[in-house]
Amino acid sequence: MFCCVALGFYFSCGIVIINAILLLQEHSLTKESQMNADILKQGIQSLDLEPIIVKLIDEKDGKGWSMQQALAATNEYRKFLFLVGLSLDDPKAGPIVPWGGVDEVWHTHILDTEKYQRDCNVLFGQFLHHFPYYGMRGEEDRQNLVQSAKETLDQVIKHFGEFLDGLNPYRQVPDTCSGKWCGGTLTADNQRIKATERPTLNQ
Protein backbone atom coordinates (compact mmCIF):
# COMPACT_ATOMS: atom_id res chain seq x y z
CA MET A 1 0.00 0.00 0.00
CA PHE A 2 2.79 2.40 0.95
CA CYS A 3 4.58 1.54 -2.27
CA CYS A 4 1.46 2.33 -4.31
CA VAL A 5 0.96 5.64 -2.49
CA ALA A 6 4.60 6.53 -3.05
CA LEU A 7 4.39 5.64 -6.71
CA GLY A 8 1.19 7.66 -7.03
CA PHE A 9 2.88 10.61 -5.35
CA TYR A 10 5.88 10.48 -7.67
CA PHE A 11 3.62 9.99 -10.68
CA SER A 12 1.54 13.05 -9.70
CA CYS A 13 4.69 15.08 -9.15
CA GLY A 14 5.95 13.98 -12.52
CA ILE A 15 2.75 15.14 -14.19
CA VAL A 16 2.98 18.50 -12.42
CA ILE A 17 6.61 18.91 -13.49
CA ILE A 18 5.81 17.98 -17.11
CA ASN A 19 2.89 20.42 -17.16
CA ALA A 20 5.13 23.13 -15.71
CA ILE A 21 7.75 22.48 -18.39
CA LEU A 22 5.11 22.62 -21.10
CA LEU A 23 3.76 25.89 -19.73
CA LEU A 24 7.27 27.35 -19.66
CA GLN A 25 7.86 26.21 -23.25
CA GLU A 26 4.54 27.68 -24.35
CA HIS A 27 5.36 30.96 -22.59
CA SER A 28 8.79 30.99 -24.24
CA LEU A 29 7.30 30.36 -27.68
CA THR A 30 4.66 33.04 -27.12
CA LYS A 31 7.33 35.51 -26.03
CA GLU A 32 9.50 34.62 -29.03
CA SER A 33 6.53 34.95 -31.39
CA GLN A 34 5.73 38.36 -29.92
CA MET A 35 9.33 39.45 -30.43
CA ASN A 36 9.20 38.27 -34.05
CA ALA A 37 5.90 40.12 -34.55
CA ASP A 38 7.40 43.31 -33.12
CA ILE A 39 10.42 43.04 -35.41
CA LEU A 40 8.15 42.42 -38.39
CA LYS A 41 5.98 45.41 -37.49
CA GLN A 42 9.03 47.67 -37.19
CA GLY A 43 10.30 46.49 -40.57
CA ILE A 44 6.95 47.13 -42.22
CA GLN A 45 6.58 50.58 -40.67
CA SER A 46 10.03 51.56 -41.95
CA LEU A 47 9.27 50.21 -45.45
CA ASP A 48 9.66 52.96 -48.05
CA LEU A 49 6.40 53.11 -50.00
CA GLU A 50 6.84 56.66 -51.27
CA PRO A 51 7.59 55.58 -54.87
CA ILE A 52 4.41 53.47 -54.78
CA ILE A 53 2.39 56.49 -53.63
CA VAL A 54 3.87 58.62 -56.42
CA LYS A 55 2.72 56.02 -58.95
CA LEU A 56 -0.74 55.72 -57.42
CA ILE A 57 -1.46 59.47 -57.50
CA ASP A 58 -0.14 59.97 -61.04
CA GLU A 59 -3.12 60.79 -63.27
CA LYS A 60 -1.45 59.69 -66.50
CA ASP A 61 0.58 56.59 -65.63
CA GLY A 62 -0.95 55.63 -62.31
CA LYS A 63 -4.40 55.39 -60.72
CA GLY A 64 -5.03 59.10 -60.37
CA TRP A 65 -5.81 58.71 -56.66
CA SER A 66 -5.83 61.63 -54.26
CA MET A 67 -3.01 61.81 -51.76
CA GLN A 68 -5.49 60.95 -49.01
CA GLN A 69 -6.61 57.82 -50.87
CA ALA A 70 -3.05 56.72 -51.52
CA LEU A 71 -1.94 57.22 -47.92
CA ALA A 72 -4.98 55.37 -46.57
CA ALA A 73 -4.48 52.45 -48.97
CA THR A 74 -0.76 52.12 -48.28
CA ASN A 75 -1.52 52.12 -44.57
CA GLU A 76 -3.91 49.20 -45.13
CA TYR A 77 -1.24 47.53 -47.28
CA ARG A 78 1.17 47.61 -44.33
CA LYS A 79 -1.47 45.78 -42.29
CA PHE A 80 -1.81 43.21 -45.07
CA LEU A 81 1.96 42.65 -45.12
CA PHE A 82 1.94 42.22 -41.34
CA LEU A 83 -0.75 39.55 -41.50
CA VAL A 84 1.12 37.79 -44.30
CA GLY A 85 4.30 37.83 -42.23
CA LEU A 86 2.51 36.33 -39.22
CA SER A 87 0.96 33.62 -41.40
CA LEU A 88 4.38 32.49 -42.62
CA ASP A 89 5.22 31.35 -39.08
CA ASP A 90 1.87 29.62 -38.58
CA PRO A 91 1.50 26.23 -40.31
CA LYS A 92 -2.26 26.38 -39.69
CA ALA A 93 -2.73 29.76 -41.35
CA GLY A 94 -4.72 30.00 -44.55
CA PRO A 95 -4.34 32.44 -47.44
CA ILE A 96 -4.42 36.15 -46.66
CA VAL A 97 -6.77 37.95 -49.08
CA PRO A 98 -6.14 41.63 -49.92
CA TRP A 99 -9.07 43.94 -49.34
CA GLY A 100 -10.26 47.15 -50.99
CA GLY A 101 -7.41 49.31 -52.28
CA VAL A 102 -4.79 47.00 -50.80
CA ASP A 103 -4.78 44.91 -53.96
CA GLU A 104 -4.04 47.95 -56.13
CA VAL A 105 -1.15 48.96 -53.87
CA TRP A 106 0.18 45.41 -53.99
CA HIS A 107 -0.01 45.37 -57.80
CA THR A 108 1.84 48.69 -57.99
CA HIS A 109 4.51 47.48 -55.58
CA ILE A 110 5.01 44.30 -57.62
CA LEU A 111 5.52 46.28 -60.83
CA ASP A 112 8.71 47.72 -59.32
CA THR A 113 10.17 44.21 -59.48
CA GLU A 114 13.62 44.99 -58.09
CA LYS A 115 12.29 46.91 -55.09
CA TYR A 116 9.52 44.39 -54.48
CA GLN A 117 11.95 41.47 -54.41
CA ARG A 118 14.29 43.36 -52.09
CA ASP A 119 11.46 44.38 -49.75
CA CYS A 120 10.14 40.80 -49.62
CA ASN A 121 13.57 39.45 -48.74
CA VAL A 122 14.01 42.02 -45.99
CA LEU A 123 10.57 41.45 -44.47
CA PHE A 124 9.99 37.74 -45.04
CA GLY A 125 13.28 36.24 -46.15
CA GLN A 126 11.55 35.01 -49.29
CA PHE A 127 9.55 36.18 -52.28
CA LEU A 128 5.83 36.82 -51.76
CA HIS A 129 4.06 35.51 -54.83
CA HIS A 130 0.80 36.89 -56.14
CA PHE A 131 -1.87 34.43 -57.33
CA PRO A 132 -4.61 36.38 -59.15
CA TYR A 133 -6.92 33.48 -60.06
CA TYR A 134 -8.20 32.60 -56.60
CA GLY A 135 -12.00 32.39 -56.76
CA MET A 136 -12.20 32.22 -60.56
CA ARG A 137 -12.07 28.45 -61.05
CA GLY A 138 -15.58 27.30 -60.29
CA GLU A 139 -18.00 27.46 -57.37
CA GLU A 140 -15.80 25.54 -54.93
CA ASP A 141 -12.95 27.95 -55.60
CA ARG A 142 -15.29 30.92 -55.07
CA GLN A 143 -16.44 29.50 -51.74
CA ASN A 144 -12.83 28.91 -50.70
CA LEU A 145 -12.08 32.55 -51.45
CA VAL A 146 -15.08 33.68 -49.39
CA GLN A 147 -13.84 31.54 -46.49
CA SER A 148 -10.34 32.99 -46.81
CA ALA A 149 -11.79 36.51 -46.85
CA LYS A 150 -13.71 35.83 -43.63
CA GLU A 151 -10.59 34.42 -41.97
CA THR A 152 -8.57 37.42 -43.11
CA LEU A 153 -11.21 39.74 -41.68
CA ASP A 154 -10.97 37.91 -38.35
CA GLN A 155 -7.22 38.50 -38.35
CA VAL A 156 -7.65 42.18 -39.21
CA ILE A 157 -10.07 42.66 -36.31
CA LYS A 158 -7.89 40.62 -33.95
CA HIS A 159 -4.74 42.62 -34.60
CA PHE A 160 -6.10 46.05 -35.53
CA GLY A 161 -9.63 46.13 -34.14
CA GLU A 162 -11.13 47.56 -37.30
CA PHE A 163 -13.86 46.49 -39.67
CA LEU A 164 -12.89 47.19 -43.24
CA ASP A 165 -15.71 47.79 -45.74
CA GLY A 166 -13.52 46.42 -48.52
CA LEU A 167 -13.51 43.01 -46.85
CA ASN A 168 -17.11 42.55 -45.81
CA PRO A 169 -17.59 38.84 -45.05
CA TYR A 170 -21.22 39.06 -46.17
CA ARG A 171 -20.38 40.10 -49.70
CA GLN A 172 -21.32 37.34 -52.10
CA VAL A 173 -17.96 37.40 -53.88
CA PRO A 174 -14.89 39.15 -52.46
CA ASP A 175 -12.08 40.34 -54.71
CA THR A 176 -10.79 37.42 -56.80
CA CYS A 177 -7.21 37.88 -55.78
CA SER A 178 -4.99 36.46 -53.08
CA GLY A 179 -1.42 35.90 -52.06
CA LYS A 180 0.62 32.74 -52.20
CA TRP A 181 4.06 32.46 -50.70
CA CYS A 182 6.72 29.97 -51.70
CA GLY A 183 9.07 28.18 -49.36
CA GLY A 184 6.55 27.97 -46.53
CA THR A 185 5.01 24.85 -45.01
CA LEU A 186 2.43 23.49 -47.43
CA THR A 187 -0.52 22.95 -45.08
CA ALA A 188 -4.05 21.91 -45.96
CA ASP A 189 -5.15 25.54 -45.74
CA ASN A 190 -2.45 26.69 -48.14
CA GLN A 191 -3.49 23.95 -50.53
CA ARG A 192 -6.89 25.60 -50.59
CA ILE A 193 -5.55 28.02 -53.21
CA LYS A 194 -4.35 25.18 -55.50
CA ALA A 195 -1.85 27.52 -57.08
CA THR A 196 -0.69 24.93 -59.59
CA GLU A 197 -4.17 24.93 -61.17
CA ARG A 198 -4.64 27.95 -63.40
CA PRO A 199 -7.92 28.78 -65.17
CA THR A 200 -8.49 27.81 -68.79
CA LEU A 201 -10.81 29.13 -71.48
CA ASN A 202 -12.97 26.06 -71.05
CA GLN A 203 -13.70 26.69 -67.38
Shape: globular
The count of helical stretches stands at 7
How many distinct beta strands? 2
Described by strand count, sense and barrel closure, the largest sheet is: 2 strands, antiparallel
Number of domains: 2
Gyration radius, to the nearest Å? 22 Å
Sequence of strands across the biggest β-sheet: 1-2
* Mean pLDDT value: 75
Cα distance spanning the termini: 74 Å
> How much beta, percentage-wise?
under 5%
Q: What percent of the residues sit in helical stretches (DSSP H or I)?
A: 55-70%
Question: Could you give the order of the helices and strands?
Answer: HHHHHEHEH
Low-confidence stretches: 2-11, 13-18, 20-29, 166-189
Derived structural class: mainly alpha
What do these coordinates show?
It is a single chain. The protein is mostly helical and 203 residues long. The chain has 2 domains: 1-46; 80-191, no CATH class. The chain has helices at 2-45, 50-57, 67-88, 102-111, 113-124, 139-160, 188-191; strands at 128-131, 178-181. It has a two-stranded antiparallel sheet with strand order 1-2. Helix 1 (2-45) runs antiparallel to helix 3, helix 2 (50-57) packs across helix 3 (67-88) and helix 3 packs across helix 4. Mean pLDDT is 75; it is low at 2-11, 13-18, 20-29 and 166-189.
